[in-house]
Design a protein that fits this description.
This protein is an alpha/beta fold. The protein folds into two domains: 205 residues, 3-Layer(aba) Sandwich (Rossmann fold); 65 residues, Orthogonal Bundle (Helicase, Ruva Protein, domain 3). Helix content is 39%, strand content 18%. It has a seven-stranded mixed β-sheet with strand order 4-3-2-5-6-9-7. α4 links the parallel β3 and β4. α8 packs across α11.
Length: 283
């Protein structure tokens, strides 16, 4: 084992840390700790983390991925909901990598609204039970994030990266597309986790657009339309939007150059934005 390998956590170190802290991974918090250093370095490499980056990590747990990020020289802001894990994380990282640049925040990733510094990269093994809500919250709250790579349940990852017309295209797909381009960046073996989960995982990467595709007011209305449309996804768009649109939906769709017989899964985020703009313009 090289000297560099000692800066990361393996299966033995992860279990020793958990035993020392009397921590048992819980389904409630969506905890599955990464125990494979090779996978950690793969994630960091695919995320393109550089020394000059300021990285946000959500749910660092025992610090496996954190150490892979700080190893690059990047500065890391880690947000951990579990007080015991948050307290120990700084100690673990300082022990393995005394030169690491790390701030630890003991908070819920779904609730944070400010950070000690601007971040431009998101890298995280997200809690699987709330991965999409956390992603949407972070992208909405911290516009400085320009790119990222997250590990999520395979089913969720494919939804995030889905294009219009896909069988798995839905609310997460359209809302994610508001912010940038998304793609599946890699597969992850179940065996790199402790405990071993009963679902498959994927790595999803994204690049934010240089400029927002719409205003904040347009985003709010567009997201409302998306929720309404996919709430009745088997219906044509003229029917599913009636509950949130005052006036004639067919006229509205016509002004947005869309067919009133279209179904939600065929519409891009730009299509929903066109509907929102037609509403703002009074049809």
């Amino acid at each position: 084992m090289t000297e560099k390998s000692h800066t990361l956590l393996g299966p033995v170190e992860v279990r020793e840390l958990a035993e020392m802290m009397q921590v048992t991974p819980t389904k409630k918090l969506g905890q599955n700790f990464v125990v494979d250093p090779n996978t950690v370095r793969k994630i960091v490499r695919l995320a393109g983390v550089r020394e000059e980056d300021s990285v946000l990590e959500i749910g660092p747990g025992l610090g496996s991925l954190t150490l892979g990020i700080t190893e690059t020289g990047a500065i890391v802001t880690a947000v951990e909901i579990d007080h015991r894990l948050a307290t120990q994380l700084a100690v673990t990282v300082a022990t393995c990598q005394p030169e690491a640049k790390l701030d630890v925040i003991n908070a819920d990733g779904m609730q944070i609204t400010s950070l000690p510094r601007e971040v431009n990269v998101l890298v995280a093994n997200l809690p699987y039970n709330v991965s999409v809500p956390i992603l949407m919250h972070l992208l909405e709250t911290f516009p400085s994030i320009q790119r990222g790579l997250v590990m999520v349940q395979a089913e969720v990852g494919h939804r995030l990266a889905a294009a219009p017309g896909s069988k798995v295209y839905g609310v997460p797909s359209v809302k994610a597309a508001w912010y940038g381009d998304w793609q599946i960046s890699g597969q992850v073996s179940r065996q790199i986790f402790w405990p071993v989960p009963n679902v498959d995982s994927v790595l999803v990467g994204f690049e934010k657009y240089d400029k927002p595709i719409g205003t904040e007011a347009e985003r709010l209305l567009t997201f409302e339309l998306i929720d309404a449309a996919f709430g009745q996804r088997r219906k044509m768009i003229r029917q599913s939007l009636q509950q949130v649109v005052a006036g004639s939906v067919p006229e509205l769709l016509n002004s947005a150059a869309l067919s009133e017989t279209a179904r939600p899964e065929s519409l891009s985020v730009e299509d929903f934005l066109m509907i929102a703009r037609a509403i703002h313009n009074g049809n």
